[in-house]
Amino acid sequence: QIMGETRLPRHMFLWCLSAIYMFAFASLYVQIPGLYGNEGVLPARWQLRVSGKSVVEQLKDSPTLLWFGPRLGLDTQQCMELLSLTGALLSLMTLALPVLRDCRVFLVLWILYLSLYQVGQVFLYFQWDNLLLEMGFLAILIAPMKMPWSTKERLHDNVTFWLARWLLFRLMFASGVVKLTSRCPTWWGLTALTYHYETQCIPTPLAWFAHQLPVWFQKLSVVGTFVIEIAVPFMFFSPIRRHRLAAFYMQVLIQVFIILSGNYNFFNILTITLCMSLLDDQHVNFWLRRYMPKTESSMDTLCSWLAVVLEIGTYALLGYWSVRYFDLQVDWENKSISSRTAFTYFEFNGFLKTVTVPSIWIGVLSLTWEVISAMFKCACVRGVLWRLWNTIQWAVMAAATVSMFAISLVPYTYIEYDAHSNLWPGIRTAFEATDRYQLVSSYGLFRRMTGVGGRPEVVIEGSMDRNTWTEIEFMYKPGNVSAAPPVVAPHQPRLDWQMWFAALGPHTQSPWFSSLLHRLLQGKRDVIRLIQTDESQYPFSKQPPAYLRAHRYKYWFSKPKEDGSYPQRWWRRVYVEEFYPMVHLGDSYLEQMLDQHGLKDKAPPRRSSNAWLPQLLRHVGKHAREMPTPLLLWTLFSSAATVCLLNSLRSLARHHQHESVLDVPAGLVQLKQIEGSHCKTFVFWTLIAK
User: Whose CA is closest to 40, among 531, 617, 408, 566?
Assistant: First the structure.
């Protein structure tokens, strides 16, 4: 019942992370001119002040490769494009070619994304960006360093891969806890999902249908969310293998539901990738229908039955606690299940105080087991030199893993004050010293449910004469009440996302909004492409508007008609108030806002435009931004998947040609026979594992 080898899940983890890096870099690449260009909403060059310091001092202040842009004859925008384009191409090759899934390649990818993150400002400060950076750094430890003399098996692999499981625990447990510690009345009243589907940033078409589900089912879904996010994560460290596998399926299930109902870019794929740490080779082989012969002793049979009893007991406890603490009752007459929160905030706070420190010790014990197990494996290696080499690797990686675990305790204990205040000062010092590199972060999505009483939405209007006003529709965020919600994941339209946050408060809390209006009044094409890739859909494509203003509306999903048929409109809306007053170029209020937040145009440094590298970047960018970004991302992914598929087919052909046992490079078990009905499954998973 102890979790076995994890070679295949590690390869799946690295393959998925390569795909996510490709999505993230390519998605950001097409948005750089409009967001961070010299004529963008928030020019990135403002973040890199020339101070006369040496390059080393500049890197200490802000660790980004953008400091080297001038040495290449590039301005900040062009250097950002170069870094993101390099990251997209490198991750694309890593996705397609197994030989590139090396720790040095993942180090380069991490440095590239960190460099962009440092100047990303409000458009790049999302939790999934932090999560990608943390997972990217873990991948440096998890991925092999491929040398001519290196072996396929590294005895410390389970130690470093354990960090992914710990990160998954921190992510899910904190996401569940903050919903209750925030004292949000919708989470405490179990009504959050009755608002969530229509108030999330960019819903999918399925969100409309999910919103129509009965209230009792929505409340029961909230109960399930709490169970999966707060209780189930403790099963990640269970010594019983089936506990971890059950936890895997429950976590993946909730992520799939989120993907179907909302556009959360690559965040849910990141979480599913972390869930690979709960698997082992045996279960992946089970997916591939490659059953390995096992010989069980009577003791193994006894342990197996004992594990089944403990497993049933665990699920019974989860069911009992769910019924008790959420007062679940079946209403047979109405064919529903009623639920309510049967505990108080202070009782939950007491629970949190009780479990936070023990959860840390559970992590310590689990990590200690992995470290000691790897140490014994090293001691059993034949040959003095090989034993010494494996022991040195184990010592270095174990020290790195323990260090990462230690500094992660600082953001993890943000959820409970006493546990945080009692941390050893040395851990705090180490965390503060590494904080600029985003090695670890705190998490907690959907802390409070917004949009209760209607989804706030900002609508920008333009006019040439102050009499006739035309709405400016965005590609992705709700605007036109007749337009269906889009499906854009894994792309993240970062301007659309920030428009959602801007609608939650006054425009003064979103200083970039004044800069956005200023660029639209100037008719900057790069900014317009953030709103509409097809400029023919932009109402002022021929001539910039003379005047702009913004209003706040409240949106709701439309309801089915009384006869059960679907309405013609997806949304209904009501005008609320003015969000931004009417302004024009040179308007005193607009100039005041730009001055107040330091957003006035500053002359960019002049760079040679005749150099080959800037010309190449302009040429690539021109063609890459012609197609919709989601289509671009899936085209890149399909290209890499095709290469993987061809490699798999070549391996199959080699197998049939030699009529011998197939040796899969990732360390898959040897196959004696490949049945025709299993070929498709084998090709797909070899695509990942290879």
Answer: 531
